């Protein structure tokens, strides 16, 4: 099995060195993307995002929470990701893996860094605020789970209903409108193999690439980034990929309309 994986990695590396990809895409092309908002009836917001054969579901729920001591008037935002064995034989049951923790943190960081949600508007009364939970579930894994998760989360947030609050409690099933969003944040993820960078790495490409770079953007600026893998990226690489991310980010945001 290991020799077959090595052959596959060598083949993919050879194609990338020539500026080609195994599935025929251009170096900066995404696989087909599909969004299905409103997939969970009992959630305040939800969406499924498919990028190629990768499929991710995001659900939004509200609850009452106690604010953090250093931010007494600010609501709580929490993002989690579940990598189920149903999605891939690579995933195992048990406590959160490093991969699931990183996935949740990258999505969360993009939303926070852009001040997408006004958490001060979640204040209810002293020692009581709204908490918004973004739960990400991986349904099928064929690479680039970060971009699929970020798109699913943002699609769910754009349609999230604000719960009605009375006497410091949530009135379940009653809503006061939709969640106001200051920005729409998306991520664009590159892989790099040798000197070649490419968008939206498939699972096979992820297994063979030297490193990964994810850039979170709004329509105006870059708000966060995350690098993974042992490979290096030059300043020139980063500047070029940042410019491309802004353009590709606008294309992804158009899917959220």
| CATH fold type | Ribosomal Protein S5, domain 2
Please report which band the strand proportion falls in: under 5%, 5-15%, 15-25%, 25-35%, 35-45% or over 45%.
Answer: 35-45%
Percentage of helical residues? 25-40%
Query: What is the fourth-level CATH superfamily?
Result: GHMP Kinase, N-terminal domain
Return the domain count.
Answer: 1
Beta-strand segment tally: 12
Which word captures the global form?
elongated
Q: From the helix content, strand content and strand pairing, which structural class follows? A: alpha+beta
Q: Whole-number radius of gyration? A: 19 Å
Nearest-integer average pLDDT? 93
Query: Unreliable segments (pLDDT under 50, ≥5 consecutive)?
Result: none
List the total number of helices: 5
Main sheet? 6 strands, mixed
* CATH architectural category: 2-Layer Sandwich
Order of helices and strands: HEEEEHEEHEEEEHEEH
Separation of the first and last Cα atoms: 44 Å
CATH class: Alpha Beta
Describe this structure in a few short sentences.
With 257 residues, the protein is an alpha+beta fold.
